[in-house]
Design brief:
This protein has one domain (about 1-190): P-loop containing nucleotide triphosphate hydrolases (Rossmann fold), CATH 3.40.50.300. The protein is built from nine helices and five strands; from the N terminus they run βαβαααβαβαααβα. The chain has helices spanning about 15-25, 30-40, 45-55, 60-75, 90-100, 120-130, 140-155, 155-165, 175-190, and strands at about 1-5, 30, 80-85, 110-115, 165-170. The structure holds adenosine-5'-diphosphate. Adenosine-5'-diphosphate binds near residues 58, 59 and 87.
């Protein structure tokens, strides 16, 4: 199985590049943000629990996220692989993901980190706010919270994969196609 962690700050382009990667490599998309938004839309208990955190730009508690991911993985064990988008977002989520995968004799193949400067992220999120309908895209304070949560809690996840020699940084500024070509070069080397 080809199991890729697609990593990067909010607004880095993970969703866009995930679509390209899935189309080419036929992987299952596991976006925790998307899964939570589906639960929100359907008004499930999980959605109600997640809403408060998401609307403020804070992380949903690890236990909740991990359980949701475990459930999704166990339903797709026959897949070519997974693309993890927006997960893991804490070191605890990263170690839990390794344990989960090991229990199925699987592992993470690589991490691809989209690198985008903070001022560019802000511009992109504000642009996306016009059409996304996402509460967390709408105001400066929520965007600030998401960026600081990323720096404090999520950025250490990159070191976790660096220690395992699985980290690949990609310049996330430029045309979508150009960035996708750089991503494919990493995957095709595996
Ligand atoms: P972003 O564009 O900020 O990366 P996502 O769609 O990935 O947005 O996530 C939106 C929100 O969903 C996050 O701000 C957080 O509240 C919640 N969320 C998504 N993934 C996780 C996760 N792995 N751990 C905790 N919370 C998460």
């Amino acid at each position: 199985m080809l199991n890729i962690v697609l990593f990067g700050p909010p607004g880095a382009g993970k969703g866009t590049q995930s679509e390209n990667i899935i189309a080419k490599y036929k992987l299952v998309h596991l976006s925790t943000g998307d899964l939570f938004r589906i639960h929100l839309g359907e008004g499930t208990e999980l959605g109600k629990l997640a809403r408060g955190y998401m609307d403020q730009g804070k992380l949903v508690p690890d236990e909740v996220v991990i359980k949701m991911v475990e459930d999704k993985i166990s339903h797709h064990l026959d897949a070519n692989g997974f693309i993890f988008d927006g997960f893991p977002r804490t070191v605890h989520q990263a170690t839990s993901l390794d344990t989960m995968l090991q229990s199925h004799d699987l592992s993470i193949s690589t991490m691809i980190a989209l690198e985008v400067p903070e001022d560019e992220l802000r511009i992109r999120i504000k642009e996306r706010a016009k059409t996304s309908g996402r509460v967390d895209d709408q105001d400066e304070e929520k965007i600030n919270t998401r960026i600081s949560v990323y720096l404090n809690e999520t950025a250490p996840v990159a070191s976790y994969y660096k220690e395992q020699n699985k980290f690949n940084g990609i310049n996330g500024v430029g045309s979508i196609n150009h960035i996708f070509t750089s991503i494919c070069q990493v995957i095709d080397r595996l």
